[in-house]
Every structure is written in C-alpha cells, then in structure tokens.
Amino acid sequence: MTSANVRENKSTETAGRCLEVSKLQELVYELRIEQVMTRKVITVSPDHTMGQLKEALRLNRISGAPVVRDGEMVGIISIEDLIKALEAGEIDATVGEKMTGGVQTIFADESVIQAVNKFGQHGFGRLPVVSRDGKLVGILTQGDVARGLLRQLEIDYHEEEIHRYRASHIFEDIVSDQTGLILRYKVQPKDFVHCGEAASKLKRALERLGAKPAIVRRLAVASYEAETNLVIHTTKGGELIAEIQPDKIRVVATDYGPGIADLEKAMQPGYSTAPDWIRELGFGAGMGLNNIKACSDVMNLDSKPGIGTRLEMIIHM
Hints:
This protein is an alpha+beta fold and 317 residues long. The protein has 2 domains: 10-24 and 166-316, Histidine kinase-like ATPase, C-terminal domain (Heat Shock Protein 90, 2-Layer Sandwich), CATH 3.30.565; 34-146, CBS-domain, CATH 3.10.580.10. Helices cover 40% and strands 22% of the residues. The strands form 3 sheets. A 6-stranded antiparallel beta sheet has the order 1-10-11-9-8-7, with helices on one face. α1 (23-30) crosses α6 (112-122), α1 packs parallel to α10 (213-233) and α9 (197-208) packs antiparallel against α10. The longest helix has 22 residues, at 142-163.
C-alpha cells in the first residue's frame, strides 16, 4: 500500500492490546462534511470596508466569512483580521487588502476526519466547503463538527434500538461444522469521492447482525483506514473481504499495487509515501497502519514487490 522496490517478500504479524474506540471516534470517520456543515453562508465582497465587515460579523454573530467576487471565492476574512485592522486604525481598509488568499477548502462529500486533520494541521477555526465543481456550498467550523457528532449520536442510538437483533441467532439456525458470512467490497484507485463507503457498508452490516457496539467501532475505524490505503496506493484497484464468524471477524484488504519497501518504517507513526496533493486532500497522514494495529486483535501484513500488499485484520467477538 506504499511504494516498494525490493527483491524479497516482506511480511509481518502483530498482536497486542487493542484500542478502545469510542462512538465519537467512529462517527468522525463515518460522517460526511455535508451532514454537519452550515449551509447558509454569509459572504462579503473584497470591496467592502473593514467597517462594513464589522457590522456583518456583529449582525450575523459569526467570527469570519468567505470573501466572494462574482460568485468565486477569492479569500477568507476573520475576526482576528478585523481586530488587527481596528488596532492599526484601518477601519476604512478594504476586505481585499486584509483577507487571506489561497484558501484551504474541503469537499462536501469528504469524511469529517479529513476536516479534523486540516483543523489540527493548520490551526484553522473554519473551512469553506465546496462541491466537486468548486462551488461554495457551506462553511464548517469546529463547533459544527461537535454539534453534528452529538446529533448523530442521538439518531444512531434510536436506530440501534429499532434494528438490533442477535447475530448468534443467524449462526444457530444454520447447521454446519463452521458457519460464516462473507462480504466483499471492490475499491477503485484514487476514488476519493467514494472513499469510506465500503467501510460504512460493512459497519451497517455488523450493526444489523447485532455485533457489540465496541466491536463495530473498532472494525469501522480499522476498515476505513484499510480502505483509504487502497484508494491512495493501489494502481489497479483492490478489495475488502470480511468474513464474519460467531467468534471473530476477519477482514482482508488486498492491494494490487507496488508493495511496501520497508514494513518497519511503514509502521512508524507519521510515515507515508503519499504525494503532497493527496496530503492536501487530508489523506495519507501516515497513521493508517498504526490505527489498524491498535483496533485489531491480530494484524498480518504481507507485501510482494511489484504485485501488491495483503493486509489481514482479526477482531474477536
């Protein structure tokens, strides 16, 4: 799942204490930006004065706004910019003179975890949200993320109560020496629009089967990270295969790509071979394999240079 140019096959197996994944951590991976963002966006023109900006912020009770000219976003202005202008006696300066250009944006269909990464990486208080064709469709603040997570917690609680039934009933009703359910999901290379959908489908399947919430949360995070690695690094596509048995869940992520050059280095926190443009999208932070290891009871990783990588995760029920 990262670039490789070595002559021998590489493999590793790890097991240890598993990470306890909270419901909030799970939702950060699952929710999309469009589900938590503020859709009504207050914008200002670069020709507005800082005095006019002050009134706009006061009347709308906001701490910043995108700067738009002829329907195109050209920058962003914050209350911190306003304070600096007031302290310098520049109340008549234009927004265009004080705004920040080259604005970081985020796509509406991306996962909330991408926004969390950007907030942490750049120290932003807000992010303009755009559609895939570049149209401004919303604004996202850290407060929006918190409110969206709390709202979804309540929704999920009621849905779990309605849909839950025990997985053991299914396995008990089918007579065989060993009964299992296999789910298969195809993953396309560089398809960031649909990245995370396979993990979400697997999560919903486990919820319907009545798996314990703590197990579902661990698997949701691990499978999302595995799917993201497939999207980033595979050259010919890959797949997630989940085998659900009464006592364990086994997920295999197969990557038809270049393989991993150094497994030991790949397991180091923050190490990633993802190019800069992928990092700008909020992917490839170099924590994927570590998060998978932390969420799994057993993790097996095999890599064949020039052929691809096979990642196996096992979580005991």
